[in-house]
Amino acid sequence: MASNGENDKSLIVSFGEMLIDFVPTVSGVSLAEAPGFLKAPGGAAANVAIAVARLGGKAAFVGKLGDDEFGHMLAGILKENDVIASGINFDKGARTALAFVTLRADGEREFMFYRNPSADMLLRPEELNLELIRSAKVFHYGSISLIVEPCRSAHLEAMKVAKRAGALLSYDPNLRLPLWPSAEEAREQILKIWDEADVIKVSDVELEFLTGSDKIDDETALTLWRPNFKLLLVTLGENGCKYYTKAFHGTVDAFHVKTIDTTGAGDSFIGALLCKIVDDQSVLEDEPKLREILRFANACGAITTTKKGAIPALPSPDEVHKLLNAAK
């Protein structure tokens, strides 16, 4: 990728997995009872990259897909959505990951994964596009890529390279317990890289899991705070989000919409936030501006829950402004 200063200035690189979710055609039934499934491209890292691009930001995805029809379909979807694809590798020996998703009647999800091993797990450090990673202003990642080698080493190397190049590190653990050997291992590996980040977003469920507390309050959240953090966020679904910085903390209310499928809402939220801070990180120290950005991010998350699947539901700026104006 040619680097010509101005053009690279606000690149957000999202590192991790892209897969195909098979979503039942009927909500509120078990996998066994589902009459059929629709293929929905997804994977948190890819969702975040597309969320950024759809909002007019500059995004790249770094990860590995199977050298199969699904893998090339997913790479095509990234390109169609204006995501830079020069960080994608293809694995000839492994398949693109699949997940079968059950949509419960309340719009929440359960997962059954097909990855033994899938291509995303086989990304090696030497396959990383270091030039792309070094040109990131923000480097975003999750924890699924920490579960097994060689992907874990690739993840740690990419983080190190991005940090050394001066990127803001953004971490959304995106806990998927069924993928981990045990809950203890998940907690340990997720927290092992905790202190490296600048911005961290956890859901209320992840907060409970990581702290072992059943309280979603400031005291519990602040046990996850580290002195080098710029921002810690706890998303609360229909109750909005809590934010914590060195100087202030508070809550921003959610938007009330008709929720059909919560897939991708958290990715849409973090993508929107990163898009708004990539060019001016000083907003993280300005509470009124930060609250405005989080209101925008909450709107993006809310809109994403009103349609099935993640990527088709990620909003455009027009949709977001429509919801923001309607709620005034």
TrEMBL record:
EC number(s) reported in the record: 2.7.1.4
Pathway terms, separated by semicolons: Glycan biosynthesis; starch biosynthesis
Molecular function GO labels: ATP binding; fructokinase activity
InterPro entries linked to this entry: Carboh/pur_kinase_PfkB_CS, PfkB_Carbo_kinase, PfkB_dom, Ribo/fructo_kinase, Ribokinase-like
Superkingdom of the organism of origin: Eukaryota
Pfam families: PfkB
GO-annotated biological processes: fructose metabolic process
Keywords, sorted A to Z: ATP-binding, Carbohydrate metabolism, Kinase, Nucleotide-binding, Transferase
Major enzyme class: transferase
Residue span, Carbohydrate kinase PfkB domain: 10-315
Keyword Kinase recorded: yes
GO CC annotations, alphabetized: cytosol
Reactions catalysed according to its record: D-fructose + ATP = D-fructose 6-phosphate + ADP + H(+)
Function: May play an important role in maintaining the flux of carbon towards starch formation.
Family as reported in the entry's similarity comment: Belongs to the carbohydrate kinase PfkB family.
Name of the protein this chain belongs to: fructokinase
Lineage of origin: Eukaryota, Viridiplantae, Streptophyta, Embryophyta, Tracheophyta
